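Example record

The entry below shows one chain as it appears in the dataset: sequence first, then structure tokens.
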Amino acid sequence: MFQVNLEKIGCGQKVSMRELHKVAELSGIDPTADCQSQEIDGVEFLSSIDRIGRFCEDTDIYCQLAVLHAAMDITVAGGDPKIASICIEYGPEFSSIEETAELTKSIQRALSSLDMSAQNLHSVRSDYTHLTIAVTGTRRVIQTACQESGRVYISRKIGASKLLVLNAMEGEDIEDISNEIFGNRFLGSSVASVSAADITGFGLAGAAYNLCLRLGVRASLTLSAQHLFANEVLSVPMPCFEALALPDAATSAQCRRLEIVSKCIEFAGPALMFVPEDSVSEFEMDFFAKHKQSPIQLGDFVQDRLKPGADYIWES
């Protein structure tokens, strides 16, 4: 019988962003970026890698969300995910050949739903089920750095994946919540000047902080209940979901509960987008055409010339 281990679900074991920035300085390799690119024979290839622990009883939903989580790294970078190489760590609940085969079939169905294919599959036995997924894709629209000022958006409300875990633990129906995640997945933007990241792994706060550093901007974000998928998200147990992503003084929040939500790890979470002011109209029209809904504005950003990189200010 499978039981959720809250210390191993999703990307719950990520090294803190503070440590990763230090690793980047010492190694010359940047492990804080979700996605890296390389041009070969005039084609730009994107690659990413993620390790996602099992977070619900339903194997199909787990595999669909794990694959979506991995593919999002390519999508938010303006690319088209094509192929995946996957290492399956079979936990104790997969004790027979039939059970391991069913998990593999679920992975294949998940890839097919995103028009992706499996290049390689590798499998090992483990004390807990994880999928390590490396995704490769191509990019036609090259993102450019944000300009003087602009607006900050998320593609959908925060917290659906967290609520899915809580309901799965309590044995409640999770189909409606998973449909929310699948149905509102980010499909990318054709606006080249948009800089984006998904908020998986480090949460909204960590993703915003990382983009601020990369772009050299300061962002002011307002987080309120209208940005949450459901009020139950506020009851998520913190030791299970909090990403150690930020310097201690990086945020100032009047509402502790909403500050906590901003630091919660998401998996298959919304996209976070920094859009220059002169591209806002084009971006909003493009987004609505793809998603049949408008993006959710969280705040704005400005260039910060006074110091290298930047932090941000939360209001709630």
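Notes for this example: The chain has one domain: 17-315. The domain at 17-315 is CATH 3.30.1330.10 (60s Ribosomal Protein L30; Chain: A;).
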